[in-house]
Design goal:
The chain has helices spanning 2-22, 27-46, 56-69, 72-78, 87-103, 107-112, 116-126, 132-153, 165-171, 176-203, 214-220, 223-245, 254-275, 278-281, 320-323, 341-346, 365-487, 492-511, 514-541, 544-564, 574-609, 612-650, 656-662, 664-693, 698-720, 728-761, 771-813, 818-832. It is mostly helical and 841 residues long. It has 4 domains: 1-153, Alpha Horseshoe (Serine Threonine Protein Phosphatase 5, Tetratricopeptide repeat); 162-325; 417-564, no CATH class; 570-832, Up-down Bundle (I/LWEQ domain). The protein starts with a helix and ends in a 9-residue tail after the last helix. It comes from Echeneis naucrates.
Length: 841
C-alpha cells in the first residue's frame, strides 16, 4: 500500500504534461482515453496465458488507476478476456482481482458485486475439473465471492482487513448476537482461504524446488494475499471468541471452539510450510503461530495472545524477475516506457511537450501563467466541490442508515405480527374444518335417524297388521275348537308333531329378518291354535301316559326356546341393579370431587415452583380444568334429580329397585355412561398433572377433554330416553351438559394457547449451520412430516374403529335399543367436537 501511495504522489506532477499536450480544449476527454488505454495495457500485461507469476509493477499500475476511478474500467477490460477457456488466464485474473479487492478503492467491492453471478458460474464450470489450474480456479473464485459478500455485509471492515480493537468492537455494535454471527462469518471466510492454501500445496510436487520455477511461482504468488488475509482473520477470531466467552456460557460456544481448533491446526501447518519456501523468503516474512491454541475458558489468556504480523519488505522484487524474461507479444506496446510511473501509464515525449520553451510556437510566458492560474483555480473549485459532496453524502448516508434501522425494526415487528396472524389463521382454519366435519357428520346422522324413524313406522304398521291377524287367528281358533268338539280329534302323535312344528317356527322367529318374521309369526300362531285344539281333543280321548309320551319332546324344545326369549335383565335380582346405579353415581361424584381437589393441589405447587411463562400457562390450564370439574359436578347432580323423576313417574306401584330391574337395559346404559364420565375426569387430571410437570403432552389433555364431552353426551342421551320432554330437571340436565361442553372447549383453547406460548420460547437458530447441514435437516424434516402424516391417517382410522366398537358395546351389549343408540351417537357427535365422530354400528 505504501508503494501505491508513493506512486499516487507522483501523478499530480505529471498532470500538466497531459493538459499541455491537449492544448486545454479536450483535456478531460484525452485524459480519460489515456487512462482507459493505460488500464487495458496493464491488464493485458498482468493477465495473460503465460504460466508465470503476475509482475508486481503491472498489478500496482492497475491498483493505482482503480484507486481514482473504481472498478468499472477494470471489468470492462476483463470481460473481453476468455477467462472460461484458459485456466492459467483465469488463475492470474483471480490473483489480480484479489489484490484489487484488498488494496483498491472501497467502491471496487461494490462495483464488482454485479459480476457475482458470472463469477459463480465460472467457479462451477471450473469445478468439474478434478486437478490442475481448473480445480484451483474454482476454489479461488469461491474465496473471492465469499470475500465480497463478507465486506458487503460488514462494511466496517476494509478490503485489507486492517482494523484496530476499537473498530472491531464498533463492528459488533456492542451486541453479543452480532459478535456471535460475525465470528461464524469469519470462520467461513477463513475456511475458504485455507481451502485455497491447501489446494495450491496439494497441486505442487514438494519433493522438488518448485518455488524457483516459473510454473511453481505462478501458483504460489496469490498465496501472499491469502497469508495477509489469514493473519487478520485469525487475530480477530481469537479476540471475538474471548469476548463471547465473557458473555455466554461455555457450553453454548463449544461448536465455535471446535471449529477454531480445527482451523488453528491447518493454519499453523500452512504458515510453517510456507516459511520454508525460498519464494516467500524474499517477498514476505510469515509469522509463526503459538505451539498451542489459546485457552478461551481462562479469561487471562487474552493477555498472552500475540497478534500475528506479516512483514513485507519495502522494495521486494519477485525472484522471477531475475530468472524469467517478460514476454509482451500479446499486448499493445505502443506506449513507450519512461522513467516516471505516470509516463508508464500514459506515455509522453519531451519533443512534443507544450511546456517546452524550445517549441512553444510563439506562446508568451504571461499566457502560460494565466493558464496555470486558471487551471489551479479550477482544480481548487473541484476539490471544494468534492469535499462538499463528501460531507453531504456522509450526512445522507447517516440519515439513510437511521432510516434503514427504523425500517428494519418495523419489518421485524410486521414479521412478528404476520407470524401471529398466520398462527391465528391456522387455528381458526382448523376450528372451521372441525365444525364443517361435525356439521357434515351431523347431517349424516340426521339422515340415519330419519331412516330409523321410517323403519320404526314401518314396523309399527307391521305390528298393527300382525295384531289384526292375531285377532283373526283367535276367532278362527274358536271356530275350529267348536268344530273339533263336534267331530272329535297340542292322536297324541299328531299333537306332538304340532308342538315340534311350533318350536321350529319359534326358532325361525329368533333368527330371521323382518319379512321372514311376519310369515313365521303368522304360521306359528296358526300352529299354536291348532295344537291347542288338537291337544284338548286328544286329552279327552287317550290315556294320559300315551299322551305324555308323544308330547314330551316338543314340550322340552318349547321350554328351552322360551327361556331364550326372556329379557336378560330378569335374570338379575331386583335389588342388584338398583344398588349398582346408586353406587356408580356416588363413585362418579367422588371421582369428580377427588379430581377437583387434585387440581387445586397442582395449582398451589405450580405457583410455588414455576415462574414466568410456564407459571402463566399452568395457571390458565388448571383454572380451565377447575371450571370443567364444577360443570361436571352440576351435570351429575342434575342427572340424579332427573333419574328420581323418571323412577317416580314410571314405577307405578313397584319399588325403585323393581323399576331398575324391570328396565334393566336402560339401567345398564345409565351405569355405563356414569362410569365413562368419572373415568374421563380422572384421566384428564392425570394428563394435566403430567403437563404441569413438563412430562406430558398437550395433545393428551385435549383428547381427554374431547372424551369427557363425548361421555357427557352419552350420559345425557341415556337419561333422556326415559325422561319426560317437558321435565324441568331434563332442561337443567341439558343446560349442565352445555356447560360441560363450553368448559371442555375452554380447556382445549387454553391448552392450545399454552402450547403455542411454550413453543415460541424455543427459538430455532440456524445461523451457525452450513448449507449442507441445513439441506440435510430439511430432508430429515420432510421425511418426518411424511411419516407423521401416514401415522396420523392410520391413527384416525383406528380411532374410528375404536369408537364404532365402543358404541356397539355401550349401545347393544349394555342395554340401548336401536333408536336410543342412534340418538346417543348424535348427541355425542354434536358435543364432542371431535374431528372424526363415531359412525353408526
Amino acid at each position: 500500500m505504501d508503494r501505491v501511495k508513493s506512486s499516487m504522489q507522483q501523478v499530480p506532477n505529471a498532470i500538466p504534461k497531459v493538459i499541455r499536450r491537449t492544448g486545454g480544449a479536450n483535456s478531460l476527454e484525452l485524459e480519460r482515453e489515456n487512462f482507459e488505454r493505460g488500464q487495458a495495457v496493464s491488464i493485458n500485461k498482468a493477465i495473460n496465458t503465460q504460466e508465470v507469476a503476475v509482475k508486481e509493477k503491472h498489478a500496482r499500475n492497475i491498483l493505482i488507476l482503480s484507486v481514482s476511478k473504481g472498478a468499472h474500467t477494470f471489468w470492462a477490460a476483463v470481460n473481453r478476456l476468455p477467462l472460461s477457456s484458459n485456466a492459467v488466464l483465469c488463475w492470474k485474473f483471480c490473483h489480480v482481482f484479489h489484490k484489487l479487492l484488498r488494496d483498491g478503492h472501497p467502491n471496487v467491492i461494490k462495483d464488482s458485486m454485479r459480476n457475482k453471478a458470472d463469477l459463480t458460474d465460472m467457479s462451477r464450470m471450473w469445478g468439474h475439473l478434478s486437478e490442475g489450474y481448473g480445480k484451483l480456479c474454482s476454489i479461488y473464485l469461491k474465496l473471492l465471492i465469499t470475500k465480497m459478500e463478507f465486506h458487503i455485509k460488514n462494511p466496517r471492515f476494509p478490503g485489507n482487513l486492517q482494523m484496530s480493537n476499537r473498530q472491531l468492537d464498533e463492528a459488533g455494535e456492542n451486541d453479543v448476537n452480532n459478535f456471535f454471527q460475525l465470528t461464524v462469518e469469519m470462520f467461513d471466510y477463513l475456511e475458504c482461504e485455507l481451502n485455497l492454501f491447501l489446494g495450491v500445496f496439494s497441486s505442487l510436487d514438494m519433493s522438488r524446488s518448485v518455488s524457483v520455477t516459473a510454473a511453481g511461482q505462478c501458483r504460489l504468488a496469490p498465496l501472499i494475499q491469502v497469508i495477509l488475509d489469514c493473519s487478520h482473520l485469525y487475530d480477530y477470531t481469537v479476540k471475538l471468541l474471548f469476548k463471547l466467552h465473557s458473555c455466554l456460557p461455555a457450553d453454548t460456544l463449544q461448536g465455535h471452539r471446535d471449529r477454531f481448533q480445527e482451523q488453528f491446526k491447518k493454519l499453523k501447518s500452512l504458515f510453517y510450510r510456507s516459511s520454508n519456501l525460498q519464494y516467500f523468503k524474499r517477498l514476505i516474512q510469515i509469522p509463526q503461530l503459538p505451539e498451542n491454541p489459546p485457552n478461551f475458558l481462562r479469561a487471562s489468556a487474552l493477555s498472552e495472545h500475540i497478534s500475528p504480523v506479516v512483514v513485507i519488505p519495502a522494495e521486494s522484487s519477485s525472484p522471477e524477475s531475475e530468472h524469467m524474461v517478460e514476454t509482451d507479444d500479446l499486448v499493445d506496446t505502443e506506449i513507450p516506457s519512461l522513467p516516471t510511473k505516470f509516463d508508464d501509464l500514459f506515455g509522453t515525449s519531451a519533443a512534443i511537450d507544450p511546456f517546452n520553451f524550445n517549441s512553444q510556437n510563439g506562446m508568451r510566458k504571461d499566457d502560460k501563467d494565466r493558464l496555470i492560474e486558471q487551471l489551479t483555480r479550477e482544480i481548487q473549485a473541484l476539490k471544494d466541490e468534492l469535499e462538499s459532496f463528501r460531507l453531504e453524502s456522509g450526512r445522507l448516508c447517516q440519515v439513510l442508515r437511521g432510516r434503514v434501522s427504523e425500517l428494519e425494526a418495523e419489518l421485524a415487528e410486521q414479521s412478528h405480527l404476520r407470524l401471529q396472524a398466520v398462527g391465528e389463521s391456522e387455528f381458526l382454519k382448523a376450528e372451521l374444518d372441525d365444525l364443517r366435519r361435525v356439521r357434515e357428520d351431523t347431517e349424516k346422522e340426521q339422515r340415519s335417524l330419519t331412516e330409523i324413524e321410517r323403519k320404526a313406522q314401518a314396523n309399527e304398521q307391521r305390528y298393527t297388521k300382525l295384531k289384526e291377524k292375531y285377532t283373526e287367528l283367535v276367532q278362527s281358533h274358536a271356530d275350529l275348537l267348536r268344530k273339533v268338539r263336534k267331530s272329535g280329534a297340542h292322536s297324541p302323535l299328531l299333537s306332538g308333531c304340532k308342538v315340534i312344528k311350533i318350536c321350529k317356527h319359534l326358532s325361525n322367529f329368533l333368527c330371521l329378518g323382518v319379512p321372514e318374521l311376519i310369515r313365521a309369526v303368522t304360521q306359528c300362531c296358526h300352529l299354536v291354535g291348532d295344537t291347542i285344539i288338537q291337544g284338548s281333543a286328544t286329552s279327552h280321548m287317550v290315556p294320559v301316559e300315551k299322551c305324555s309320551l308323544h308330547l314330551s319332546p316338543g314340550i322340552t324344545l318349547w321350554t328351552s326356546l322360551s327361556v331364550k326369549l326372556r329379557p336378560k335383565g330378569l335374570e338379575l335380582q331386583q335389588g342388584e341393579l338398583g344398588d349398582l346405579v346408586e353406587q356408580e353415581m356416588a363413585a362418579t361424584s367422588a371421582a369428580v370431587e377427588s379430581a377437583a381437589a387434585r387440581i387445586e393441589e397442582m395449582l398451589s405447587k405450580s405457583r410455588a415452583v414455576d415462574t414466568g411463562i410456564k407459571m402463566e400457562v399452568n395457571e390458565r390450564i388448571l383454572a380451565s380444568c377447575t371450571e370443567l370439574m364444577q360443570a361436571i359436578k352440576e351435570l351429575v347432580l342434575s342427572s340424579k334429580d332427573l333419574q328420581k323423576d323418571i323412577v317416580e313417574s314410571g314405577r307405578g306401584a313397584a319399588s325403585m329397585k323393581e323399576f331398575y330391574a324391570k328396565n334393566s337395559r336402560w339401567t345398564e346404559g345409565l351405569i355405563s355412561a356414569s362410569k365413562a364420565v368419572g373415568w374421563g375426569a380422572t384421566v384428564m387430571v392425570d394428563a394435566a398433572d403430567l403437563v404441569v410437570q413438563g412430562k406430558g403432552k398437550f395433545e393428551e389433555l385435549m383428547v381427554c377433554s374431547h372424551e369427557i364431552a363425548a361421555s357427557t353426551a352419552q350420559l345425557v342421551a341415556a337419561s333422556k330416553v326415559k325422561a319426560d320432554k317437558d321435565s324441568a330437571n331434563l332442561q337443567r340436565l341439558q343446560q349442565a351438559s352445555r356447560g360441560v361442553t363450553q368448559a371442555t372447549a375452554a380447556v382445549v383453547a387454553s391448552t392450545k394457547s399454552g402450547k403455542s406460548q411454550i413453543e415460541e420460547t424455543d427459538t430455532m437458530d440456524f445461523s451457525s449451520m452450513t448449507l449442507t447441514q441445513i439441506k440435510r435437516q430439511e430432508m430429515d424434516a420432510q421425511v418426518l412430516v411424511l411419516e407423521l402424516e401416514t401415522r396420523l391417517q392410520k391413527e384416525r382410522e383406528r380411532l374410528g374403529e375404536l369408537r364404532k366398537k365402543h358404541y356397539e358395546l355401550a349401545g347393544v351389549a349394555e342395554g340401548w335399543g336401536e333408536e336410543e343408540e342412534g340418538e346417543a351417537q348424535v348427541e355425542a357427535c354434536q358435543r364432542s367436537r371431535s374431528p372424526h365422530p363415531p359412525p353408526l354400528p
